[in-house]
Design brief:
The complex is a heterodimer. Chain A has five helices and 14 strands. By secondary structure, chain A is α+β, with helices and mostly antiparallel strands. In chain A, the strands form three sheets. In chain A, strands 1, 2, 3, 4, 7, 8, 9, 10, 11 and 14 form a ten-stranded mixed beta sheet that branches. A two-stranded antiparallel sheet of chain A has the order 5-6. A two-stranded antiparallel ribbon of chain A has the order 12-13. In chain B, strands 1, 2, 3, 4, 5, 6, 7, 8, 9 and 10 form a ten-stranded mixed beta sheet that branches. In chain B, 46% of the residues are buried. The chains are: A alpha+beta, B alpha+beta. Chains A and B meet through β1, β4, β5 and β8 of A and β2, α5, α7, β7 and α13 of B. Chain B: InterPro entries: CRISPR-assoc_prot_CT1975. Chain B: This is Type I-E CRISPR-associated protein Cas7/Cse4/CasC.
Chain lengths: 244, 399
Amino acid sequence: MSRHLLMRLQAPLMAFGGETIDNYGVIREFPALSMITGLLANALGWRREESERHDRLQSRLIVGARLDSDVQRMREYQTAQLFEKDQGWTTFGQPEGRAASPSYSMQPDGRKSLTWQRYRDYHASLNVLVALRLESADESPTLGELADALDRPARPLFIGRKSCLPSCRVFAGWQEADNMLHALQTAQLPDLDLRFRLQWPDGEGTLAGDRRIDLCDERNWVSGVHGGWRPVREGSFTASGVRQ
Amino acid sequence: MRLPRFIQIHTLHTYPAALLNRDDAGLAKRLPLGNAVRTRISSQCLKRHWRVTDDKFALSRLDVPMAIRSRATLEHISKRVQENGISAAMAQAAAEALRDAGLLDKGGKDKKGEDALKTGQAVLLGKAEIDYLVKRCTELAESAADEQVLKTDVAKALKDEKKNIEALKHGSGLESALFGRMVTSDILASRDASIYVAHAFTVHPAQVENDYFTVVDDLLHEAGELGSAGIFDTELASGLYYGYVVVDVPQLIENLEGIAVQDCFSPDTPPARRELAGRVVQHLLHLIATVSPGAKRGSTAPFDWAKFVLVEAGDWQPRSLAGAFHDALPLEDKHNSGTIRQRTVARLSDEIAAMDEAYGAPLARRFLALDPVEVAGAERTNLNKLADWARDIVQQGEC
């Protein structure tokens, strides 16, 4: 039996980001390993340039998730006005902006701008239980340090995007279990006759009717891109099935 | 002692027959939540209206004390350069050169010592900007033979990357300190937003109706033509909206003052360095309470002041009270237990009491309300006092 830290992700809006191409911010059903890494690093107060710490934490994390409510997707439409000469400064001495393009049109004040349209998908009204543990367990941050950081985070916690603010305490206690699947099947089961969907790392238990898939949800925190594949399993069960 | 690391702001606003925020089909934005679909106002929409409002508490009226600020910034840079092993004289020369070369001033004035630090236009340099300037000054000081050479070198460096420095100054305003800024590929230059805004949503099922309207052409009418020149429809929604905002106070201070997050509340940081952050929070509270978002302002006049504002301060994990409205409030109540607004505030109060009982997280709280309601562990007050209280706890560093 090993100890698993539980997190409750609950909010009117959440976003488990997938591969964003162009202006479409799509989401996945389950939180990515990189998102959980980022959420914990945020709680610990790490800065984004501390990429090696992020990489190390991500490689130690064993994470699974259970959906405690139905998934409802919602597409948010946004517009932003961009000006042709907008530039941001950089630490390498040259400002960075966008290339000139015929898409910009003249505004009454003489500046050229365009209206950028963005689509962002969200999970509406979702409730997710996340279980996690660390290998090796003795290294810092430990599970205990993560629990403390979640209760007293260095920055506000958010679930995928900054507007997705949790509506409950994120740290949700502990669960002793043989493996990740066992933890997800036994921890804090709601009193509902719902069919729960789960995702857990391959090698952490099997469930009748589950399937193994390869997932690209690890971020290389130095280069800032996602890469590599890791095997996970997805399946479902009913609480009454477990209770029997 | 509790640090006011997070300031959480909960609001209730009433907007009847308005189209506050619409999607690409022109319909009111919606949110399926719990047992009912609601209407919604996006965080982007709310932030934009707080940002562009021009009233007494506009962000542009914060009236940053220029001389004090630029002196503090240059002293801070000089101190940081010395921490990198550069002598006090050389560090001072580098800071003076930054000022003379136009970083903080109109430039062209060759002032020395105290004078050099006292004058100049303020730029709100965040930690990323100051880190960068300290690094450049340190590099130049390490290779310069004496103070005069260093001054020339710093001036030349600023001139060589004129466009980058202009972008740096341009991106260092109040707005980016609050709401973040356009991101470049350079993560070291990024500035995180210090204000987190949730989408606001109605506490009850969406109340939407189709507004059918025609446009009458008076000239055609006079000429004897019948009918209208156009037929349209649009959606109008009515609602009582729950809004939620979190201010990350250390991040705000870092963005405004260039102080590292972990030092914002340390005993070495004088309260004066938190003064501006405190006033920003004060202004923000007024803006959140009194500025309305909205499209179709001319035809629907969607202007409202908050009917309820609750402010919480402390260092526990911020969490919204959205859970109180997971089950939508019925529009009518058979038990006649008050107006929907009173029932809404009662639900919020119950949610807070339940959270306190479950978690015992100690938070300092104050609220304003139009209705005769009570909130667990919170003192009742008015908007001015509420905003002043928030300002003072940021500056004092305790709540």
